[in-house]
Design goal:
Strand order of the largest sheet of chain A: 1-4-5-8
Shape of chain B: globular
Strand order of the largest sheet of chain B: 1-4-5-8
Order of helices and strands of chain A: HHHHHEEEEEEEEHHEEHHHH
CATH architecture of the largest domain in chain B: Up-down Bundle
CATH topology of the largest domain in chain A: Butyryl-CoA Dehydrogenase, subunit A, domain 3
CATH class of the largest domain in chain B: Mainly Alpha
Distance between the termini of chain A: 54 Å
Strand content of chain B: 5-15%
CATH superfamily of the largest domain in chain B: Butyryl-CoA Dehydrogenase, subunit A, domain 3
Shape of chain A: globular
Number of helices of chain B: 11
Oligomer: heterotetramer
Radius of gyration of chain A: 23 Å
CATH architecture of the largest domain in chain A: Up-down Bundle
Number of strands of chain A: 10
Number of helices of chain A: 11
Number of domains of chain A: 3
Strand content of chain A: 5-15%
Largest sheet of chain B: 4 strands, mixed
Distance between the termini of chain B: 28 Å
Largest interface: A-B, 63 and 56 residues
Chain lengths: 410, 369, 410, 369
């Protein structure tokens, strides 16, 4: 039992390091990685250039088949690359969804000609893809979507709205799941397409979050017309196609949301109250010990997942563990840090606030972490059903035509 | 057994609720996040006309003397509506003045407060850390204040402040400072911009001693105890608003062909919020009973109410966001406004750790007696 | 706003006190009241004598109509009596279910002759009644009961089993809900009876709990034969009758389960570790303050309930609050007390254990408190549905004949 | 990345599980509550024959030397089956001997332990309170022990004890005492009678010093760190058994016409138990890695594993009862047996407060370094 690479993994890690050392600067712990939503025109250029460099060096599309320019390697190689890349000051977050989810879906359902057209530019960072699944009325009920696609000759005409679309404002293409038949039960009337995000009839609006960030977008479709050739999979098979996409959801390789437990511990060592460092207060020790044990437990659980990957297995839904624990922990830790500060904890002004206001920001961003990408409630359902084998919730809409499913006010 | 607001008080609360419902406070609160004024001075003057600013000020000082019970009920309505007014800060200052001000000082400020023509605040904190006598370093000598206080609630707009300082012998004093000459006020960004905070730099600002038979630090804590009880009602009102909002959403928002509120994950979460809220409300009412009965040492009742009400509002506001799902954490939706207020109120008068310690200390005193 | 009695309440309280002062000894706080399950033959005699004395003095059946020997008073009088009686060393728990739930059900559904026969002996403590509702297969699904009553001439023949029956081993009579028609949905096929607990075909076995106590019994029916005259309500109306019984469930007038928050605080003051009283440890202060605030919140909530009673209103399901909070709090407090003791906390031996092992006993009895009389989950459902007005759980068995309702292994 | 038990270890675990499944340990455990023996000596000898008693004892001392990884895996199976054997106590004593015993002492006891012919224990606690050097008052002078230790796990039946005591200069020493002459042993009722506790009164009982280069108190804590990691695996095994039991019950028990496990109240509760269990298992494995790699200071890994595993087993055992409903809190049903064990294991090696403090102290040392 150890945490070491196999010989082959170690060799691969060395080659990754060599590439990164030659082409990037190490990142200091204090610097958070550049995030998606912070990407502006200039940063986007840098991100695209970095992706092109990775592609040229053979570190893009690590798990893609070689046929389409990928490396044909396994998930553990992907993990190793990401672990190493995380230590360098390089842009992140712009291409993950396209390369990890959209194009693999294309590979399963698009034509050879289409793949010849789209895989290369995606791989080299020339074109960006997004995934258009969630809708305002759906919420956790992903298949309850209402965006309509209606056949008109050889085309489809699309009207409706998507929401929570990461990167839509940067994207050139997107994969889009629509309802083509409301007269059958909800999972059966869906059809998947890919679309040009610059086409007339597509409008992208950023969503302003309570933390001040804008990670997500709303996307509106007004008589968007696309050829049937852009259909992915059969008419009515959209749910099956969407599951393919979701199966490729990215594995978290590390990095709790910041400020993390180490930040909190450092703060409690540095911050003095009642004449001594806060960490000397037994209540502070008690709480931090709890969170530390959780945090390290998640880290060690990740090592167990990597071990399975290393042995060729696919990680299961137990990956949800980290997200269930982290989201709540982040909120609790932020609150606790502010409580230590007393009345001063209200103040987020960087001119006076401790730690540049990072705990105040975390207080405002953590509620989103308990929701985005699947609420904690949905994740618990997934664990209960897929890991523990407990029965599903009662499904009243199961055999009902979608148009007849009760939908309340919306 | 008569442990409920009187009919008169409920009447005042009902009027208040109807009045505030017409004011769209949430709009002002949201605007404050984008650089708006924060506090709504016009609204505060209207409230003063209704008698709310002077609710606890005796008629001899121009107040309405309707007393603490009405004050608690009004606080609950302000909390429910998230009203962006200097209610808590001004009350705190008025309470301090009533307790320790000279007749002249009372006559100078209390009528103006009651009329909505002046607002006050308490300047106690000096940066981060729990409420503590040792943390007070601002100096008061020869009628002048020197040093820095932050955060001070509504400090950028208040007309005067009750400042906790030290005299040349190192003893704690309470002084009254008009916020003008010799005071530099800097607005500070905070998690709840609708109850704006400021930094006050005193550079030889003139101020007058507040006198009392009580030890000035004890007097300060007594005032804070009273404020904690009033604030508990604000928090109860806020928590109730969050619960109502979440329940309404859970009943009308559908997923999987049924209201999301038919899921136990939502039902039990909201039942827990209800439980926390009811405990907080009951403890707040015990605090109100203490205020009404004129007891001197309210620390146990105040701490109990404060601990419960912090937990209730923070939980209710947080789980309201969670119940709303995605829309809940957007800038445009209302839940974030309550979440900000809940967390700000949880910190402003000293956080849970201070109050829990105060609660246990009060219990120890009682058992020692 | 105050916590005072009205003039009339104060007068009533004074009369109660006068009766108790003349007839009973004050109870010291350290003495827990004698509980139901601890009743033996000798204690039962004392309990019966006390009940007879109460009846003679006009303090039994406080809410019963005067027609049947009661006092015709309201719930607040009942509360006042219980509050005062709680301060005296008198037996408790033997007659509550009979006088509070069974006989009121009889009053609603039995004949005048039957009431003439049964009310007096119950009131004077000569006969004890129990309530036979819960079944092993039912659990939280009270109406899912299977005890069968089959008509045979003018009689009914009853076979089946009840469980969690408090006081069955002491009881002379019981009210019994049975299934008379399995071919209709579950709530519609029930019928209520009252039975003689000494009749052939009734067997009572105590249930041994993990704490060592035996509060409850199982009751088995083997060809128990009872005349149709012992039916309460119409055939098929048993659910309606049962709801009448349950509506009379006793209001808690005080008394957290012991050891309570005051016991814990006293322990933390007395118990020294690391050279000082445990209460000086900030972690101990933090936890106890939390529980204290909850405990006082429940107490003050009770005052609000009494206020409504005092004004003639009926208390609603918000009475569940105390039970939801107390059960978990009791378990947490017990665990915390043992943690303070360290390894010694394992030891329940009264020869060495702190506080006579009461926290160890509480550790073992508190899991039952989270379940007995409605699990915390059921209580949350009740709050969500009846107080907050949220929708009920999906009911798959709603319109199904009882015999067709899926029942799993049992 | 190879963060999983080896195939050999998994094989040993599998054999152990099959062996224990045939033993109906729960029957013995339940009998212990009604005055039964508690520990099952015959079962322990059988386990010794399988090599479990000497798993971590080198072959030169008659052990099987299969090492810590196997020991961890065996501990997990013992936890799962609730085996009523002096495993933890004997291991603790053997570990102390291995660390600080003389060659002669090792030769005298370790082969007997490995053969199942002798059991040992650690006598550290002196009544209530956290693990602490200051709490040690038993005196060791002129080769004799005087004073009282309680609780001592399996103290009524163990053949020898490693006793933490003070020499005439007040310094901490570890000594080895055969539990015979001069020792009065009194069985104490405890919450888990299947791991019986005793009080040992030493009245001039003969004992021999254990020597080491380490400070004896540090050596004691080091042994406890190691024991905490092994115990974490017992707790993980126990928690897994509780989760399995609860899931099985929730799938097969019906109410309202469907399995109770289709209710989110049950599903989410059990999902939370799963999460706690997986975190505990992962932290226990990090602890095992520390044991295997022979690191000297395991305090951080041990404390992390212990905190997680206490929480996991206590939660799992408690929510298993809750999932079972009424039947869950009866004497005859199995859930209470796991609940008793979970709470006893949570206290026996020092409770969470001790370990949380130890965790933070270790972090502080690391950051100071």
């Amino acid at each position: 039992m150890d945490l070491e690479d196999t010989k082959e993994e170690a060799d691969y890690r060395a080659s990754v390091r060599a590439f990164l050392d030659a082409n990037a600067e190490p990142r200091s712990r204090s610097a958070a990685p550049a995030r998606f939503y912070q990407v502006n025109e200039d940063r986007l250029k840098i991100a695209k250039a970095w992706q092109a460099k990775k592609a040229a060096a053979g570190f893009a599309g690590i798990r893609w088949p070689t046929e389409w320019g990928g490396q044909g390697l396994s998930a553990i190689h992907d993990v190793i690359y990401q672990q190493e890349e995380g230590k360098y000051a390089v842009p992140k977050g712009v291409f993950e969804i396209g390369l990890g989810m959209c194009i693999p879906t294309m590979m399963a359902f698009a034509s050879k000609e289409q793949l010849e057209r789209y895989t290369g530019p995606a791989l080299r960072g020339e074109e960006i893809w997004c995934q258009l699944f969630s809708e305002p009325h759906g919420g956790s009920d992903l298949a309850g979507l209402r965006t309509r696609a209606v056949k008109d000759g050889d085309d489809w005409v699309i009207n409706g709205q998507k929401i929570w679309t990461s990167g839509a404002h940067l994207s050139d293409y997107g994969i889009l799941v629509t309802r083509t038949d409301p007269n059958v039960p909800k999972h059966k009337g869906l059809t998947m397409f890919f679309i040009d995000m610059h086409a007339p009839g597509v409008e992208v609006r950023p969503i302003h979050q309570m933390s001040g960030a804008s990670h997500f977008n709303e996307v509106f479709f007004t008589d968007l017309r696309i050829p049937d050739a852009q259909r992915l999979g059969e008419v009515g098979d959209g749910w099956k196609v969407a599951l393919t996409t979701l199966m490729n959801e990215r594995l978290a390789v590390g990095d709790e949301p910041r400020p993390d437990i180490d930040d909190l511990f450092a703060f409690a060592q540095k911050f003095e109250r009642n004449g001594k460092p806060a960490i000397k207060d037994p209540v502070v020790r008690d709480r931090i010990a709890d969170w530390y044990a959780k945090s390290k437990g998640i880290e060690a659980t990740r090592y167990r997942t990597f071990t399975r990957l290393s042995r060729g297995a696919t990680p299961g839904p137990e990956a949800s563990i980290g997200r269930v624990v982290n989201a709540m922990k982040q909120q609790e830790m932020a609150r606790f840090a502010l409580e230590m500060m007393g009345a001063g904890g209200m103040v987020s002004d960087p001119s006076v606030s401790q730690n540049g206001g990072e705990f105040q920001l975390s207080l405002l961003s953590s509620p989103g972490a308990r929701i985005a990408g699947g609420t904690s409630e949905i994740l618990r359902n997934i664990i209960a059903e897929r890991v523990l084998g407990l029965p599903g919730d009662v499904r009243v809409d199961k055999d009902m035509a979608f148009k007849d499913v009760p939908s309340g006010r919306g | 057994m008569n442990f409920e607001f009187s009919d008169e008080t409920q009447e005042i609360a009902g009027q208040g609720r109807r009045f505030l419902a017409g004011k769209d406070c949430l709009k002002t609160v949201r605007a404050s996040l984008s650089g708006g004024e924060g506090s709504d001075a016009a609204l505060w003057r209207e409230m003063a006309d209704l008698g709310w600013a002077g609710a606890a000020i005796p008629e001899e000082y121009g107040g309405h003397g309707i007393g603490y019970e009405a004050l608690c009920a009004i606080a609950e309505e302000l909390g429910r509506s998230l009203a962006p007014v200097p209610f808590a800060a001004t009350n705190l200052a008025a309470e301090a003045l009533l307790r320790t001000g000279s007749e002249e000082q009372k006559q100078a400020w209390l009528p103006k407060i009651a009329a909505g023509e002046a607002t006050g605040t308490l300047a106690l904190s000096e940066g981060n850390g729990p409420i503590s006598e040792d943390a007070v370093t601002v100096r008061y000598a020869d009628g002048k204040l020197t040093g820095t206080k932050w955060p001070v609630a509504h400090g950028a707009t208040a007309d005067f402040a009750v400042v906790v300082a030290r005299d040349p012998d190192g003893r704690i004093v309470q002084v009254l400072a008009e916020l003008g000459d010799g005071v530099t006020r800097t607005k500070l960004d905070s998690i709840d911009a609708s109850r704006p905070q400021a930094r006050l730099d005193f550079d030889g600002a003139p101020a007058a001693l507040l006198q009392s038979n009580e030890d000035p630090w004890d007097a300060t804590l007594s005032v804070i105890d009273r404020a904690a009880i009033i604030t508990a009602f604000e928090e109860v009102g806020g928590a109730q608003a969050c619960l109502d909002m979440a329940v309404d959403y859970a009943k009308t928002r559908y997923a999987f062909g049924r209201p999301i509120g038919s899921n136990q994950a939502i039902k039990h979460k909201l039942a827990d919020v209800f439980v926390a809220l009811e405990l907080a409300r009951s403890n707040a009412m015990m605090g109100a009973l203490g205020l009404l009965s004129g007891e001197q040492d309210l620390s146990l009742a105040a701490a109990t109410a404060r601990v419960s009400s912090i937990q209730a509002f923070v939980t209710a506001s947080s789980e309201n966001i969670q119940t709303h799902g995605g829309i809940g954490f957007t800038w445009e939706a209302d839940p974030q406004l309550f979440y900000r207020r809940a967390n700000a109120l949880a910190l402003g008068l000293g956080s849970q750790d201070f109050w829990k310690d105060r609660l246990i200390s009060a219990l120890e005193r009682r058992h020692a007696a």
